[in-house]
Write a structure and sequence with these properties.
By secondary structure, the chain is mainly alpha-helical. The protein is 63% helix and 11% strand. The strands form 2 sheets. A two-stranded parallel sheet has the order 1-2. A two-stranded parallel sheet has the order 3-4. Helix 1 packs parallel to helix 8. The radius of gyration is 16 Å and the shape is globular.
Length: 185
Amino acid sequence: MGNILNFSLLFNIQKYGYTHLSAGELLRDERKNPDSQYGELIEKYIKEGKIVPVEITISLLKREMDQTMAANAQRNKFLIDGFPRNQDNLQGWNKTMDGKADVSFVLFFDCNNEICIERCLERGKSSGRSDDNRESLEKRIQTYLQSTKPIIDLYEEMGKVKKIDASKSVDEVFDEVVQIFDKEG
C-alpha cells in the first residue's frame, strides 16, 4: 500500500515542481555506503528507533538539495519527508537553512498507532528494513510522541500544518494530498 501511495505522490509532486527528499531514505542509503563514516552509527540509531543526530541528517539533506539545484536552478522546491523529528532537528534546520529555505507547509499524515504498526509490519515482509518489526515500531511511536508530535504542534500554532486522515484507503489519502497541493502547490 505505502509503495503505491509513494509512487503516486512522487509522480504528482513533480507536477507541482517539488523534488522529494526522504530523510529516512537518505539515512538508509548512507548506512549502506561502505565508505561512510556514519554507517554504523546510523544503523544503531535506526535499529533502536531513535533519532539520528541532526548534524548527519542535515548534512545529507543539504547535500541533496545543493546537488539538485546545481543540476537545475529551477528545481528549488522540496518535499522533505520525515524531518524535522525533534527540537534538535528543528534548531539544526533553522541554524543551517536560515535565509536559504522556508517551510511553506507541513503535511501531517494522522493515523492511529495500531494501523501504523500493522502497515509497517506488512511493509516489512518485503522492505528489508531492520526497523520494520513490532519492537522497533513501538519504540518509534514512543519517540514520535515524545519528540516529533511537539514539533508538529509548533507548526500547527503557526498555521502551517495540513492534516490528512491517513487511516483511510490509499486512494482517499492520495486524493486529500492532491487537494492540498492543488491549493498550496
